[in-house]
Design goal:
The chain is about 55% helix and about 5% strand. By secondary structure, it is mainly alpha-helical. The chain has a single domain, classed as Rhomboid-like (Rhomboid-like fold, Up-down Bundle), CATH 1.20.1540. A two-stranded antiparallel ribbon has the order 1-2. β1 and β2 form a beta hairpin. α5 runs antiparallel to α6. The protein starts with a helix and ends with a strand.
């Protein structure tokens, strides 16, 4: 992945490109909208983002293939832009905002779409990454909780905007009406004969 190549390359050359992060409300910080998700402070930071990013990304591309590229582009730029507008005036780096956007998208897609597949996927996401909700609150020093919160908001917006993409498949037999009247679709039990009698 490009995230690993960039981090290994900068580590070997002993370069720390933090200035490629988002610096809110600064013209020079606008470039960070494109580059900040590619920059990580250390390998621990990189690993903690890579695993959920891969899992959630695969989930989106597998279950919502028509919307996947649009969702990725939207949350990538929307998260960075919102961070540039609303976050603290420090450099914000890392792909955690995208991670939160992906998790949020998968969860809220189940709410907006209301089909069994999406709802099931939402429950799985809650089970796997429900603890991430605490990351949107101000807490540990050096953590960009704004990226987490604004990424999650971007995911909600994307889930609503693309809720009609990848509609659930319906089969012809699901829409076929039975030729048998509803009142004939009953089964009765005859206690004297000790068996069920099909009234058909």
């Amino acid at each position: 992945m490009s995230l690993w190549f960039i981090h290994i390359f900068s580590s070997v050359l002993k370069i720390y490109p933090y200035k490629l992060g988002v610096l809110p409300r600064s013209l020079s910080g606008l470039v960070g909208i494109l580059t900040s998700p590619l920059i990580h402070s250390n390998f621990s930071h990189l690993i903690s983002n890579t695993i959920p990013l891969a899992i959630m990304g695969l989930g989106i591309f597998y279950f919502y293939p028509n919307a996947a590229y649009k969702v990725f582009a939207f949350v990538y730029f929307c998260t960075g832009l919102l961070v540039w507008i609303f976050a603290r005036e420090v450099y914000h780096i890392g792909a955690s905002g995208i991670v939160y956007a992906f998790v949020s998208y998968l969860f809220f897609s189940g709410i907006f779409r209301r089909d069994n597949k999406s709802i099931t996927l939402s429950l799985i996401v809650v089970f796997l990454y429900g603890g991430l909700v605490w990351g949107v609150l101000p807490g540990l020093e050096g953590i960009s909780w704004e990226s987490h919160l604004l990424g999650a908001i971007s995911g909600v917006i994307a889930a609503y905007l693309f809720r009609k993409s990848d509609p659930i498949k319906h089969y012809e037999w699901e829409d076929e009406e039975s030729d048998v009247p509803p009142e004939k679709l009953e089964v009765s039990y005859d206690p004297e004969k000790n068996k069920f009698l099909d009234e058909l």
